[in-house]
Automatic annotation (TrEMBL):
The keyword Transmembrane helix applies. One of its GO terms (molecular function) is transmembrane transporter activity. SUPFAM superfamilies: MFS general substrate transporter. It is found in: Membrane. Residues 1-407 form the Major facilitator superfamily (MFS) profile domain. The chain crosses the membrane at residues 18-37, 43-64, 76-97, 103-124, 215-236, 294-312, 324-341, 353-376, 382-402. This is Predicted protein. Its main location: membrane. GO terms for cellular component: membrane. It is a multi-pass membrane protein. Keywords: Membrane, Transmembrane, Transmembrane helix, Transport.
Length: 419
């Protein structure tokens, strides 16, 4: 999923076509992997699945542009709650399918949900913001017209003006409407499209903008927040099985226990996955009330509180309660950071910004089993818990230094709009 930065650039250049490629690669490679004749082919196909999954988060950037500012946080939580639904569904599927039918059936059935994106692609509208930024104003008007009819409203009379050399107002509050004719709008669209061709050296220009003076602080803090959230989230998921038997099992004994009690492993993962449901409700309640920064900080620091008892004792009941509470808080924080990431960047670099930030988060997810979980396997449980505590605490402090609070504010289209 480190390829998310690439997917975000594809989406910036091709709009919703990026979603189509994501769905094809994820579902196609996922289904084919169930027929793998050997381990090498299985790893190659799962690698392709990972590349496809890397494009998933850019859907949030697209969805964000259709939601009004006052309820933007709430609706983004609703969208991201389907991650929780998918987690519970996959845990349930593994629990039911693996013991009786094996991993091939599990992989084949797990590829089916990605097909839904292919089925809905034909009726998925293009982002009006994206179309305006590309100078395709007539297409943007068509999309806005369909949205207006769906909501029983009418568009103001006039012409939608797009000029990449001026600051754009938010489309929902409105892209500037001036008197004119459809012919003039079409001529302007063609001129802007020509201007756009060859103007950006791949994705390098967009990536470099993330480190511009106005965005540097926000970008670095966002990378830290994503790293901390991903490291902690995937760490807690892994620790659910690693510490499910408290402090009684270590090293070789632990491996034997996992292989001899698969049903217990599925049960623990299934139960802990439900922690994300109240996490979603908590996100909905606080994200548009107390703001993004305070919401993330409170959830991260509360997660520290839940993990702290495990430093001293790891009985089975205490471990389950602590990890359940910690996962609730981390999932809420992770949801909110995915809301905040596309909000903080202007339209011109939004998908690139969230793509690069999420890729940094994936690095945290990769390092987590290599560092923290390895400590548990070597009977250094206390050190592992303290490491998680440190990462979560530093992330909680970092988010309080974000330069912008986006609660109720309109999205920016250019760096000049940011203040």
């Amino acid at each position: 999923e480190l390829t998310l930065g690439v997917w975000s650039q594809i989406t910036m250049e091709g709009g919703r076509k990026g979603f189509l490629f994501t769905a094809i690669m994820t579902s196609g490679a996922g289904f084919l992997s169930s027929f793998s004749p050997n381990y090498l082919s299985l790893m190659a196909l799962r690698f392709l699945v990972g590349i496809g999954l890397g494009g998933g988060p850019v859907l949030g950037s697209w969805f964000l542009e259709f939601v009004p500012a006052p309820s933007r946080g709430t609706w983004m939580v609703v969208l991201l709650a389907f991650w929780t639904v998918g987690t519970i569904f996959e845990a349930s599927l593994a629990w039911l399918v693996m013991p009786k039918f094996g991993w091939r059936w599990l992989l084949a059935l797990s590829s089916v949900p990605s097909l839904l994106l292919l089925l809905f692609y034909a009726i998925t509208p293009e982002s009006p913001r994206f179309l305006c930024m590309k100078g395709r104003t007539m297409e943007a008007v068509d999309v806005l017209g369909k949205m207006a009819r769906l909501n029983g409203a009418e568009l103001p009379s006039g012409k939608l003006v797009s000029d990449k050399n001026i600051e754009l107002d938010e489309v929902s509050e409105s892209a500037t409407l001036l008197n004119g004719t459809a012919k003039a709008a079409k001529e302007e669209e063609n001129d802007n499209i020509k201007e756009d061709e060859g103007s950006d050296f791949g994705g390098f220009k967009s990536v470099s903008k993330l480190l511009s003076p106005k965005l540097l602080r926000a970008t670095l803090l966002l990378w830290m927040a994503f790293f901390g959230n991903a490291f902690s989230y995937y760490g807690i998921v892994l620790l659910t099985s690693e510490l499910s038997n408290g402090n009684r099992i270590c090293a070789k004994q632990e491996v034997e226990s996992v292989h001899s009690n698969n049903s217990s492993l599925y049960k623990n993962v299934f139960i802990s996955s439900f922690a994300e449901i109240p996490g979603s409700f908590v996100s909905i309640m606080i994200v548009d009330r107390i703001g993004r920064r305070l919401s993330m900080a409170s959830m991260l620091l509360t997660s520290c509180v839940f993990l702290f008892p495990l430093v001293f004792s790891r009985t089975e009941i205490l471990t389950r309660i602590s990890l359940f509470g910690a996962r609730l808080c981390i999932s809420a924080s992770f949801t909110i950071v995915y809301i905040y990431a596309p909000e903080i960047y202007p339209t011109s670099v939004r998908t690139t910004g969230i793509g690069v930030a999420s890729s940094v988060g994936r690095i945290g997810g990769i390092l987590c089993p290599l560092v923290a979980v390895a400590l548990v396997h070597n009977c250094h449980q206390t050190t592992a818990i303290l490491l998680f505590e440190l990462v979560v605490f530093l992330s909680g402090v970092a988010v309080m230094f974000f330069p912008f609070e986006m609660k109720g504010r309109r999205l920016n289209d250019t760096e000049a709009d940011m203040h």
